[in-house]
Amino acid sequence: IMLHSTLALSLLLIAVTSNLAMAIKKEKRAPQTLSRGWGDEITWVQTYEEGLYQAKKSNKPLMVIHHLEDCQYCQALKKAFAENEEIQEMAQNNFIMLNLMHETTDKNLSPDGQYVPRIMFVDPSLTVRADITGRYSNRLYTYEPQDIQFLIENMKKALRLIQTEL
């Protein structure tokens, strides 16, 4: 009987431990839902309002990515964005990051329409940078996967403009 209960207890312990390990693993991944695939190492804010607050408080520019799950252009850009180490590092260290799957009430974030993907920068003085645009005149704030280098330059420009203007 002693052996039987020891075995039962051991099995119970094993079951509890593996469930716990699974729970811990899940727990570790939980906060990453905000990344939505744009970069799990990046700290993402949840709302535009939170982004503005953090930008002002930290004196870092806010980068707002508008995208939709079922948009193939968004998916392609997201993949290029997530795989680029320079972007990931800058996003992690120098920017307040927000990706949105819905529009904000701030009309300054859609100066030439509501399309996706659309990436805009807001500086810590809470000014939307309408002067930091992509390569396309019909959709000023859109980027394609092959424009990643251009996006990197625009991220650097957003950082430079803050330092010179504030």
From TrEMBL:
Provide this UniProt record's keywords sorted from A to Z: Signal
Signal peptide bounds: 1-23
Record InterPro entries: AGR/TXD (IPR051099), Thioredoxin-like_sf (IPR036249)
**Cellular component, GO annotation:** endoplasmic reticulum
Please provide, alphabetically and separated by semicolons, the GO molecular function terms listed in this UniProt record. dystroglycan binding
The record's annotation in CDD domains points to: AGR
Which family is it part of?
Answer: Belongs to the AGR family.
Protein name (database record): AGR3 protein
| Organism (species) | Atrichornis clamosus
Name of the gene: Agr3
